[in-house]
Automatic annotation (TrEMBL):
SUPFAM superfamilies: ATP12-like. This is ATPase. GO terms for biological process: proton-transporting ATP synthase complex assembly. It comes from the Bacteria. The keyword Zinc does not apply. The keyword Lipoprotein does not apply. Belongs to the ATP12 family. Keywords: Chaperone, Transit peptide. Pfam families: ATP12.
């Protein structure tokens, strides 16, 4: 349940059965035999059966009240259908801008063990980028912005431009924001990494801090929710 939301304010579950049905371009969800619609009254349909099965599981898992905070696939699909499908280019362009400040470029100066871990785990992705699309990127210590070579940025964007499906673009954007890295999102989309591997790389610094100071219960719960968002995004990227 989202912060500040009283459970009594959530809509009551109004259906008994959840089933799948073939629809134009893929699959839809039926509640008591009636197709689900987005908040904007568009048909809620997805091109992949696995995504439809995840949607159905979310709707089936709702009990007395329907809690959107516990329905990450439904939220993602609603966003795609209502805000991205008609024109996915702006979202794709946003990923192209994000790579200018990619997480993997900014390294710790100390402690040395953290810096070494970043080198060992992040450098192979930069090597893959260099070999895959000629992306040689500049690294920096700390958080001060460092300009990247225009040719490397263009190489990434040219690769990104090959992705046209709005569901895949939305999933890449979600993976980018969750990991802090457009390169990691592209690596998942191209099969270089699994979602779990990209998640681990994107949270390397956070995991280091947890090792040093321990985990906070509330932070762990929020992280669990974000992982579910990563997991459903990976369904559309082909690497759950």
């Amino acid at each position: 349940m989202t912060a500040g939301t009283n459970r009594s304010e959530l809509p009551k579950r109004f259906y008994q059965t959840v089933t799948l049905a073939e629809a134009a371009g893929g699959f839809s969800i039926l509640l008591d035999g009636r197709p689900v619609k987005t908040p904007g009254r568009r048909p809620l349909a997805v091109p992949l059966r696995e995504a439809a099965e995840t949607l159905a599981a979310e709707w089936e898992a709702q009990r007395e009240r329907i809690d959107p905070a516990r329905m990450p696939m439904t939220r993602l699909v609603n966003t795609v259908i209502e805000a991205i499908a008609d024109d996915p280019v702006p979202v794709r362009d946003d990923i192209g801008r994000y790579v200018e400040t990619d997480l993997l470029f900014y390294r710790a100066g100390s402690p040395e063990r953290l810096a070494q871990r970043q080198r060992e785990r992040w450098d192979p992705i930069l090597d893959w980028a260099k070999d895959s699309f000629g992306g040689r990127f500049v690294l920096a210590e700390g958080v001060m912005h460092v300009a990247q070579p225009p040719a490397s940025l263009e190489g990434f964007r040219s690769r990104l431009a090959k992705i046209n499906d709005p569901f895949r673009i939305a999933a890449m954007h979600q993976a980018t924001t969750l990991t802090g890295s457009a390169l990691l999102a592209l690596a998942v989309a191209e099969g270089r990494l699994s979602a779990e591997e990209a998640w681990s790389l994107g949270h390397l610094d956070e995991d280091w801090n947890i090792e040093q100071w321990g985990a906070d219960e509330d932070a762990a719960a929020r992280r669990g929710q974000r992982w579910e968002e990563m997991r459903v995004a990976a369904v559309f990227l082909g690497r759950p």
